[in-house]
Design a protein that fits this description.
By secondary structure, the protein is an all-alpha fold. The longest helix is centred in the N-terminal third of the chain and has 19 residues.
Length: 135
């Protein structure tokens, strides 16, 4: 009887140890698409904006003209008309290479957009334009 109990205890212990090594099924996160009203800024675009645009286009910027023209922090709260206007302006300044301005780049060469950054911003603006217009 003692041998049966010992054997049962050892088998139970082995079973408990082996169960701890069984992999648990992965949790799959399901994201539901929701109709968004505001402009969405993906992380890769946000990084470019923070590195190249935020010095001039933020509430506490020294450049009053740039601060009045655009504050990135307010983009999410813009109405549809303001968003449409912003998207059109972004297309223009990116395609014509107007931003950042030459004077800014002279003073801070690291603020110049690379070709890849410009392409990424243009692709993002195009996607946002289609989304806002409902295409």
């Amino acid at each position: 009887m003692k041998n049966i109990l010992k054997t049962s205890a050892v088998l139970f212990a082995l079973l408990m140890i082996s169960v701890s090594f069984i992999s648990k099924p992965e949790t799959i996160e399901i994201t539901t698409l929701v109709e968004q009203e505001g402009i969405t800024i993906p992380e890769n675009i946000q990084l470019i904006i923070e590195a190249k645009c935020m010095n001039c286009h933020k509430p506490d910027a020294r450049n009053e003209k740039a601060k009045e023209k655009l504050q990135w922090e307010k983009v999410a709260k813009m109405n549809k008309e303001e968003q449409t206007h912003l998207i059109a302006e972004l297309f223009e300044v990116l395609e014509e290479g107007k931003m950042p301005p030459a004077r800014t780049v002279e003073r801070n060469p690291e603020s110049k957009l690379t070709d890849d950054e410009t392409k990424a911003l243009l692709a993002w603006v195009e996607v946002e334009e289609k989304r806002i217009k409902g295409k």
